[in-house]
Amino acid sequence: MRDYFYELEDHLQIIDDIRNPTGIYKYAEKFIERHGTWSKKFIDIEENGVVTPKEVNDTFTYTHPNHYIQVVVDHKSLISTEKGLKDLHASMGHISSNYFVRLRNKLHASITSVQQQAAAQEKSLIIASIEVSNVQGLFGEFKARGVEFAQMLAKQAWGGTDFQVRDPDGNVISFVTYG
């Protein structure tokens, strides 16, 4: 077992000096892009009535077909407030609904974002947040089965749509679709 962790450390990179959302995103993006290539395409850009073709990134492909990148932001509440945003909460929403979604959708990274909270201070601590492709459909299924909701289906300011249920121990589980 110990050998497994030593081997894992050879493939793990820990960055603990970047705190702002844009810095975290840019670092992750550059790191991922070093492990693959973009195919390109042309799009037409119209400016002042003049259409000009512009080459843009289209699809990202990892150099090695079995390559897998996991981006982990541990203790998301330790990030700094992003310039132009009013507070930490807005910055946490921004990194989740903008930067993490781009890393997942465009660069095929798997994102894990940890937000530690003091359970004693929370009325409804979310123990798990599960991303699903069709949150409205899942909500309908749960409702049809008579499930009690901790929070009804709602479009959130941070860009996701979610609902929450309680497990038999009272823990809150959130189901979410981004975008």
Tell me what you see in this structure.
- The protein has 179 residues and is α/β, with parallel strands linked by helices.
- It has two domains: 2-113, no CATH class; 119-178, 2,3-Dihydroxybiphenyl 1,2-Dioxygenase, domain 1.
- It is built from four helices and eight strands.
- A hairpin with a 4-residue loop joins β6 and β7.
- The longest helix has 20 residues, at 88-107.
- The N and C termini lie far apart (40 Å).
- 12% of the residues are buried.
- The model has no long low-confidence stretch (mean pLDDT 83).
Question: Topology of this protein?
Answer:
Blueprint: H1 2-10, H2 21-33, E1 36-47, E2 50-62, E3 70-73, H3 88-107, E4 110-113, E5 126-131, H4 135-144, E6 149-155, E7 160-166, E8 172-178
Parallel strand pairs: 3-4, 5-8
Antiparallel strand pairs: 1-2, 6-7, 7-8
Summarize this, please?
The chain is an alpha/beta fold and 179 residues long. The chain is 29% helix and 34% strand.
Q: Strand share of the residues?
A: 25-35%
Shape: globular
Quaternary structure state of the chains depicted? single chain
Strand order, main sheet: write it out: 5-8-7-6
Task: Give the averaged pLDDT, no decimals.
Answer: 83
User: How many alpha or pi helices?
Assistant: 4
Unreliable sequence segments: none
Q: What radius of gyration results from the CA coordinates?
A: 20 Å
Order of helices and strands: HHEEEHEEHEEE
Helix share bin: 25-40%
